[in-house]
Write a structure and sequence with these properties.
The protein is mainly beta. The protein folds into two domains: about 1-285, Methylamine Dehydrogenase, Chain H; about 290-360, Sandwich (Immunoglobulin-like). The protein has two helices and 37 strands. The strands form eleven sheets. Strands 32, 33, 35, 36 and 37 form a five-stranded antiparallel sheet that branches. Strands 3-4-5-6 form a four-stranded antiparallel sheet, with no helix packed on it. Strand 15 (about 150) and strand 16 form a beta hairpin. The longest helix has 4 residues, at about 275-280.
């Protein structure tokens, strides 16, 4: 397995885990989950200590996904799916519900959704038991489609020939992307609060949830892009022999690493950068940071002033806190641009209001 510096793209270390590495995922605290041979392992963020290994074989899984609240890990492989306790490594259930290779997974508030290679089959699964509740056949022509996302009551999937489908009732649905989208998808879908990312056929694209292409970038020379992973502020992709780090705002390449092969075996299948938003849930996805300040009135500290911290991207209230007796306050907020408002009513009933200008940038 390769460990790569996310700031520079330099290869930091080649790590020999003593077996074939088939899948990898990283949680938001940095812990790493790796399929090594027939077993799933959990490592410390620096990869120096193995915390656990599943007590029995897991049937060659190579798709690894962190589940809701980051409490479980879901694994998929050739005709098998498993749910594993993220803290202990206990296999909660494993089942041969899959029809073929597991390509992608997604979650809504109740169910697990799985996308397979076989005829683009997708299944709705009870996460408590592993039982299949419903399934839909996507009726494809080849195996270029490997993505599924369930978001805000809609079911999204990639299709061949630069098409994306959606439905509101877990069915095949209809194509909804605009004519600017021109990516034959080879990677699964990833999302953030603005929409989708998908790649393949030498291109990567970002679409909103209505199918409008926000940006699309073509790589030269044109090459197939096999793997895709995102975080709140980064996109990573892998072709046959190159790994890219891309700005999610515009598709600009931040760095590329041309040394990502292992004795002619390409890392096509998995990048462990950050858990998927549609798997762990929005409340666990976005990075947070600590910000603080002081409120004074006529040079004196103000006790009990209310501080409203507003996410400038969504215009929603991130949190509210009150100042201490010395006028200070601190809060944990999303690692995005935050607009701070201070409100205070003194003992005479006089009201004071002050806003941050320019906006407080939490980054």
């Amino acid at each position: 397995m390769l460990k790569i510096d996310n700031e520079t793209g330099d290869t930091v270390e080649f790590i020999d885990l003593g077996g074939s590495v088939n899948g990898v995922e990283r949680d938001s605290d940095g812990y790493v989950y790796v399929m090594v041979g027939q077993y799933l392992r959990k490592y410390t963020p620096d990869l120096t200590e193995q915390l656990w290994e599943t007590p029995e074989e897991t049937y060659g899984y190579y798709t690894v996904k962190i589940g809701p609240g980051e409490e479980d890990v879901y694994c998929g492989g050739n005709s098998w799916v498993a749910r594993v306790d993220a803290e202990t490594g206990e296999i909660i259930w494993h089942s041969s519900i899959a029809e073929d290779r597991t390509y992608d997974m997604s979650f809504d508030e109740e169910y697990l959704y799985i996308h397979y290679d076989s005829e683009y089959e997708q299944q709705q699964v009870d996460p408590e038991s592993g039982n299949v509740l419903d399934e839909v056949m996507m009726s494809g022509y080849n195996n270029d489609t490997i993505g599924i996302v369930v978001h805000d009551g809609w079911y999204y999937s990639t299709r061949p020939f630069a098409r994306m489908h959606r439905s509101d009732d877990f069915s095949r649905g209809d194509s909804f992307n605009d004519d600017e989208f021109d990516v034959d998808n080879d990677t699964h879908l990833e999302i953030n609060s603005d929409g989708f990312y998908t790649a393949g056929s030498g291109k990567v694209a970002h679409l909103d949830f209505d199918g409008n292409t926000l940006w699309q970038v073509e790589f030269e020379p044109s090459e197939r892009l096999w793997s895709l992973d995102t975080s709140p502020d980064t996109i990573w992709m892998v072709s046959d022999d190159t790994m890219y780090c891309v700005d999610p705002e515009n598709g600009d390449i931040r760095w590329e690493n041309n040394d990502v092969t292992f004795d002619d075996n390409y890392i096509r299948y998995d990048i462990g950068g950050f858990p998927s938003l549609d798997m762990i849930g929005e409340e666990n996805y976005f990075l947070t940071t600590e910000i603080s300040g002081t409120v004074e009135l006529n040079g004196d500290p103000v006790d009990g002033a209310e501080i409203l911290l507003i996410d400038d991207d969504s215009s929603e209230l991130a949190t509210r806190v009150e100042t201490n007796t010395d006028g200070t306050w601190s809060a944990t907020v999303p690692d995005r641009t935050i607009h701070a408002v201070a409100q205070y009513t003194d003992e005479n009933g006089d009201v004071y209001n002050s806003e941050s200008y320019p906006y407080v940038n939490s980054g």
